Amino acid sequence: MADRTSNAARSASGSRRSAPKAASTRTPARSAAASSATAARPGTSRHLQLLREPQKRTPAEAKRVARHDLALLAGATGFLTVVGLAMVLSAGSVSAAQGYGGNSFWYFQRQILYAVVGVGGAVVVARLRPSIWKVAGLPVLFGAMVLMLVAAHPSSGTSLYGASRWIDLGPITLQPSELAKLGLVAVSAAVVTNKWNRLDEPWQLVFPLGVIVGVVGMLGLAQRVRGTTLILCGLVLVVLFAAGVRMRYLAIASSAGLVAAMVLIVGETYRRTRFFDAWLNPWADRQGNGYQLIQGLIAMGSGGWLGTGLGTSRAKWDFLPNAHSDFIYAVIGEELGLLGALAVLIAFGVLIYAGVRIALHARGTFERLLAAGIIGWIGLQAIINMGAVTGVLPITGVPLPLVSFGGTALVVTLVGVGMLASVARDAGRAGRRSPAPRR
User: Fold this and answer.
1) pLDDT tens digits, residue range 333-342?
2) Rounded distance, CA 260 to CA 232, Å?
3) What is the extent of the structural domain holding 296?
4) Torsions phi, psi of 260, nearest 5?
5) Residue from 180, 147, 179 nearest 164 by CA
6) What is the H or E stretch that residue 159 is in?
7) 42-51: b or e for each residue (b if 16 or more CB lie within 10 Å)?
C-alpha cells in the first residue's frame, strides 16, 4: 500500500514537472499564430515607413499635437506666400509695365487675387474630413485628364515656350496639369490603401495604379510639360515608399522612368538642346541656349550676403527671362542676398517637416499616405525649381511653390496645404488612438 502511494506521488510530481514544458512548447505556436493573424489583419502597420509604434493619446494631447503641426504648417505657408507676393511685385514690375499698358502692378494684382482664392479654398478644404478625398480624388483626376487633353490640342490650348499647358478662359488661364496633382495624389493613396494586404505583389500595383500614372504621364508629355510629368510620377513614388513597398520594386520603376526620360531627351531636338547645351555646358552658347541659366547665376551672385535691396534688381530689366515666375528664386538671391535665399530654403524645410509630422500623427492609412503624397509633391517641386535656378538640375519650367507667379499653381498648392491641415485636424479629433490605423 505504501509502495502504491509513493508511486502515485512520484507520478503526480512528474506530471506537474512536465506541465510547464508542455505549456512552453505550446506558447511559441500560439505566439506565431497571433503574429500571423496580426500580419494578415487589414489595416495593420506592417508596411508603413512613416509610422512609429501606435501611441495612445488623451484628447488634450491629440489636440496639442495637432495645434503644433498646424502652427508649423500655417507659419511656413504664410511666410512663403507673403514673400512670393513681395517678389512678384518686384520681379514682375518691369515686364508687367511693358506688356500691360504701363501697369507695373498687373502681376501683383493678379497674384493677390489668386492668393485670396487659394487661401479661401484651403480654409474650406481644411474643415472637411480627409476621407472625402477617397471618393473625390477620381472625379478630380478624370476632369483634369480631360482638360489636359483639351490643352494639348493646338486649336484649344495656349502654347508658350513650346509647351501647350494652358486653356485660355478670357480673364484667366487654367493649367490642368496642376489639378492633376491633386487628383493623382488622392487616387494613389486610395488605391494603395485598398490594396494594403497585397502590396508585396507587384501586379497589384501595376493594375490599376501603374496604368493611371502611365496615362497621366503621356498626357503630360503630349503637353510637353516635362517637369510637371516628373513631379506627377515622383509623388506616386513617394506614396509607394511611404506605404513600405519593397525597394526593389521602386528601384525598377525609377530605372524604367529614367530610361524613358533619356529616350525622350535624346529623341527630340528641343529637349536635347535644353539638357546638353542649356544645362551641362551653358557657357558654350551664352547668348542662346545657356542665356537664362547664366543670367540667373549672375543675378544670384550679385546679391552677396544681404542683397542689393528689395526692388533694386537689375536682372528683371529684360536680362533674366521669366524673372517673376520660373526664375524668381534668382531675383530673391539678388535682392535679398544669400541670407534671404537661405530663409526661403529654410521655410520650405519647415513646411516639409510639418507635412511629415502630420503624416506621422494621422489617424489612418489613407490619411497618412495622402499627407505623404502632398508634401512629397510640394517638396519635389521646390527642389526641382531651385535646382534648375542654381544650375544643379536641368531647367524644366516648373514654378517655385507658393512663391512664383501663377494662378492655377498657387491656388492648387494652397488647396493641397488645406488637405494637409484637414489631416492634422482629423488627428486632433482622435482622442485615443486604436492599435491599428484606420483604412
Assistant:
1) 999 999 999 9
2) 15
3) 79-428
4) -60, -40
5) 147
6) strand 158-160
7) ebbbebbebb
> For the CA atoms of the chain, what is the radius of gyration?
27
Q: What is the 3-state secondary structure (H, E, C) of 132-145?
A: HHHHHHHHHHHHHH
**Hey, which residues does 160 pair with through a beta bridge?**
163
CA distance 394 to 376: 20
Among candidate residues 433, 418, 435, the one with its CA nearest the CA of residue 362: 433
* Residues 101, 326 contacting (CB under 8 angstroms): no
CA distance 123 to 415: 8
Alpha helix locations (H) across 268-364? 269-272, 291-302, 328-361
SS3 53: coil
User: Does 15 fall in a domain?
Assistant: no
Using CA of residue 339, residue 382, residue 189, residue 250, what is the dihedral sign? negative
* 59-91 helix and 106-126 helix, angle to the nearest 10 degrees: 170
The answer to whether residue 385 is domain-embedded is yes
Q: Which three cell numbers stand for residue 40?
A: 494578415
- Residue 355: other Cβ atoms inside 10 A: 28
- Contact 220/177 with Cβ under 8 angstroms? yes
Q: 78: which 3 cell numbers? A: 504664410
Number of compact structural domains in the chain: 1
pLDDT value, residue 172: 81
In a domain, 339, yes or no: yes
Q: The C-alpha cell of 121 is what?
A: 479654398
Strand, coil or helix: what is 167?
strand
Q: In whole angstroms, give the CA distance from residue 403 to residue 393.
A: 19
Q: Is residue 4 part of a domain?
A: no
Q: For residue 430, what is the DSSP state?
A: -
Whether 190 and 137 have beta carbons less than 8 Å apart is answered as yes
**Grid cell of 41 as nine digits:** 489583419
The pLDDT tens digits of the residues spanning 353-401 come to 999 999 999 999 999 999 999 999 999 999 999 999 999 998 888 999 9
